[in-house]
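Figure 3 (text version): structure tokens given as input.
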């Protein structure tokens, strides 16, 4: 068993019987009180955030998590079917693990999936950027470029996002999957 002073951001621990990932972890030393660790954690299954104080010598249960690169194949109901490129084993990964980026994912893209104790998926991370073609958007109005005006656009995966007025149908655009925002036009 590890102690609270061994923890760092990004680690998975079992806290109150639930699997959580540490998002923020700060060592605090208030003036006339004992030092402690302030941790902000995200529940892996529910996605809820929890904050807790740890004493420096407090025992914690660190969970070993394996991260694998998988190829996204196709969507099946509420899960995404991904394949290990080395063993060709297929896994059904919950769409919620990829958050808002799931509708923008294309077949064949490489994703990172976290596994607990063998083949139990507990999280997924899409690539940071994706390049997609705009399939539908309204034409931009000439002269309306004094401000950073945005318009809705639908991309080849069927998902929608806001793009600048100069983007037209047929343009390839780069999208940041962390924030689901337009980055640039791709030539």
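Below: residues designed for each position.
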């Amino acid at each position: 068993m590890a102690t609270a002073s061994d923890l760092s951001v990004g680690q998975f621990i079992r806290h109150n019987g639930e699997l959580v990932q540490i998002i923020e972890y700060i060592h605090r030393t208030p003036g006339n009180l004992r030092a402690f660790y302030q941790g902000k954690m995200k529940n892996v299954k529910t996605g809820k955030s929890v904050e807790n104080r740890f004493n420096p010598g407090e025992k914690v249960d660190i969970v070993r998590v394996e991260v694998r690169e998988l190829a996204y194949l196709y969507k099946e109901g509420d899960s995404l079917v991904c394949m290990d490129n080395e063993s060709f084993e297929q896994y059904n990964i919950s769409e919620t693990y990829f958050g808002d980026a799931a509708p923008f994912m294309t077949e064949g893209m490489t994703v990172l999936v976290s596994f607990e104790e063998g083949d139990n998926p507990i999280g997924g991370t899409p690539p940071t950027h994706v390049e997609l073609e705009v399939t539908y958007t309204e034409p931009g109005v000439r002269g309306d470029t004094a401000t950073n005006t945005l318009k809705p656009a639908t991309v080849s995966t069927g998902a929608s996002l806001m793009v600048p007025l100069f983007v037209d149908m047929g343009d390839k655009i780069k999208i940041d999957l962390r924030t689901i925002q337009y980055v640039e036009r791709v030539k």
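The longest strand covers residues 65-76.
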